[in-house]
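Budget justification aside, the reviewers requested a transparent look at the raw inputs and outputs of the sequence design task funded under Objective 1. We therefore reproduce one unedited record. The lines immediately below are the structure tokens for a 227-residue chain.
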């Protein structure tokens, strides 16, 4: 029996995986079709109190006001990813590249990066009232850094302390806001109505640069063969 299990270990593992996935799928479908119908009470409640969030975009209101605690944890997860990836980048010697003016990638970078930065700023600003915000803006900025990296232009040196602080700035801003609000109202992440819009904008501003650098850090890790 033991010899049979040893010789057919890979087949048995595949069968067990198929069985587990099948059971999970059946359970998920069963749970999905047996959920009680709801009357969108939470949606109506969120919409009716939107004027107290400091923004008019429902998504931004949910992420940074109604469920600010979840977004706070997300920033912490981003920072944990950076901490996990950073040692691999620091172990790699920093290369000095010589720019080639005829590089097509560099030409594309020169044309599109200024426009992309403007678009990122616009998305950050408009996020309070329309689709946009820190995550979209940071994705554009990270794309600019990736494009520069592909053009052999080194703009970020992760061995410098200031860039690590930038990657932590989103979480630091959130912690600072939470601490100040707690000292004022003795409640965690409860934004005053008159300051909610400004607080959300400050958090999103720092989060934009933090997330952009962390996304670029992950790209550099893959680009250097460490992922």
């Amino acid at each position: 029996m033991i010899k049979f299990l040893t010789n057919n270990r890979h087949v048995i593992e595949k069968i067990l995986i198929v069985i587990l996935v099948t059971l999970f799928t059946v359970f998920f479908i069963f749970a999905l079709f047996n959920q009680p119908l709801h009357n969108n009470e939470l949606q109506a409640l969120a919409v009716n109190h939107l004027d107290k969030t400091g923004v008019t975009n429902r998504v931004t209101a949910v992420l940074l006001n109604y469920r600010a605690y979840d977004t706070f944890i997300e920033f912490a997860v981003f920072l944990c990813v950076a901490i996990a990836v950073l040692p691999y980048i620091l172990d790699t010697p920093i290369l000095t590249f010589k720019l080639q003016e005829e590089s097509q990638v560099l030409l594309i970078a020169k044309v599109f990066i200024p426009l992309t930065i403007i678009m990122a700023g616009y998305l950050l600003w408009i996020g309070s009232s329309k689709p946009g915000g820190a995550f979209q803006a940071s994705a554009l900025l990270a794309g600019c850094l990736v494009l520069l990296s592909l053009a052999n232009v080194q703009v970020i040196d992760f061995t410098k302390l200031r860039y690590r602080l930038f990657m932590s700035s989103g979480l630091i801003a959130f912690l600072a806001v939470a601490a100040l609000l707690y000292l004022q109202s003795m409640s965690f992440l409860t934004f005053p109505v008159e300051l909610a819009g400004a607080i959300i904008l400050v958090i999103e501003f720092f989060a934009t640069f933090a997330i952009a650098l962390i996304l670029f850090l992950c790209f550099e890790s893959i680009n250097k063969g460490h992922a």
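The radius of gyration is 23 Å. The chain has one domain: 56-223. Computational costs for records of this kind are itemized in the attached budget.
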